[in-house]
Each structure stands twice: as structure tokens, then as C-alpha cells.
Design brief:
- This protein has a single domain, classed as Nuclear Transport Factor 2, Chain: A.
- About 20% of the residues lie in helices and about 55% in strands.
- It has a 4-stranded antiparallel sheet.
- Strand 2 and strand 3 form a beta hairpin.
Length: about 80
């Protein structure tokens, strides 16, 4: 997959060590040829200029659809 970040917003929090970044990926799935946009949020904790923890939240459904795996997801949810 080719991912290009866009619409990046970095938010400060009440904790000097915590940063929240919101952004979109303009994405191109090379195997399926699909292009799409997926929203993301990343929460980082930084201490002494080092990232000590990171949590990433993505639009997983957009990634599944782009990869052509929606039928497998539906089957898994139906217990097949």
C-alpha cells in the first residue's frame, strides 16, 4: 500500500508528555488498484525526547475493503 498523509492536525493536551495527531491517509492499494482515504488518530507519549508509547486508531473497514477482503470479514462475522 502507498500511504500519503494529509490534513495533519497536532493537538496539545493538558499533559506535556501527551500528543494527539489527527490525519487522513490518501492510500493506493497496489494489488487491487483501489484508491481510498482513511482517517486516523495517533496518541503519543513522549519522555526525554523519546516516544515511550503510541496508540494508533485507523479506519480498519476502509483497509479491508481496499484489500478486497470484505467477503472474508462478513463470513467471519457470520461464523462461517
Amino acid at each position: 500500500m502507498e500511504l500519503t498523509p494529509a490534513n495533519v492536525i497536532v493537538r496539545e493536551t493538558g499533559d506535556a508528555e501527551v500528543i494527539v495527531a489527527e490525519f487522513d491517509y490518501h492510500a493506493h492499494h497496489r494489488l487491487t488498484g483501489r484508491t481510498f482515504e482513511a482517517s486516523n488518530i495517533q496518541v503519543l507519549r513522549v519522555h526525554d525526547c523519546l516516544i515511550v508509547s503510541s496508540r494508533d486508531y485507523h479506519d480498519h473497514l476502509a483497509l479491508i475493503v481496499a484489500g478486497g477482503n470484505l467477503p472474508q470479514l462478513v463470513a467471519a462475522l457470520e461464523g462461517k
